[in-house]
Amino acid sequence: MSRVRVQTGDFDLSAEMARLRAANPKVGAVVSFVGTVRDLNEGAAVAEMELEHYPGMTEQSIEAIIEQAMRRWPLFDALVIHRVGPLKPMEQIVLVLTTAAHRGVAFAACEYIIDYLKTEAPFWKKEQTPDGARWVDARVSDEAALSKWARA
């Protein structure tokens, strides 16, 4: 099973979690992160967010992030599903799952993966607001979250 999927369709958290930990009785922790579309960003109502990417390059970039996490922590496995295309508020955007023997490892690796996804993966986000469409850049807080991994 591929550790990276970029898709337009939604995902089922329970099914993906069950699939990731299936047949591995050593798994003691599964940590998940699900990102969703907010209806408000930077003070403006958001009617829709559209995500674009470069097929092939995006998957390679995410796979490299997972590989870095796998080298850094003793994970059993990890999965990233990232949606593209138009999404409405409350819809799921991204799923990050990590499995490990212990929760600390799984939590740290999950946070590391999402921090790198937010800043390093080649996605472009455009929001539809009452004032028209606008492109969304990585936030200062996303960059600050990423910087902690250089120190760790």
Task: Identify the strand order in the major beta sheet.
Answer: 1-6-8-2
Largest sheet: 4 strands, mixed
- How many strands? 10
Q: C-alpha Rg, in Å?
A: 16 Å
The percentage of residues in β strands lies in 35-45%
Topology:
Layout: E1 4-7, H1 13-21, E2 29-36, E3 40-41, E4 44-45, E5 48-53, H2 57-72, E6 75-83, E7 85-87, E8 92-100, H3 103-120, E9 123-129, E10 132-136, H4 140-151
Parallel strand pairs: 1-6
Antiparallel strand pairs: 2-8, 3-4, 5-7, 5-9, 6-8, 9-10
Helix pairs in contact: 2-3, 3-4
State the main characteristics.
152 residues; 10 strands; four-stranded antiparallel sheet; alpha+beta; four-stranded mixed sheet
What can you see in these coordinates?
A 4-stranded mixed beta sheet has the order 1-6-8-2, sandwiched between helices. The model has no long low-confidence stretch (mean pLDDT 92). The chain is α+β, with helices and mostly antiparallel strands and 152 residues long. It contains 4 helices and 10 strands, in the order E-H-E-E-E-E-H-E-E-E-H-E-E-H. It has helices spanning 13-21, 57-72, 103-120, 140-151, and strands at 4-7, 29-36, 40-41, 44-45, 48-53, 75-83, 85-87, 92-100, 123-129, 132-136. The longest helix has 18 residues, at 103-120.
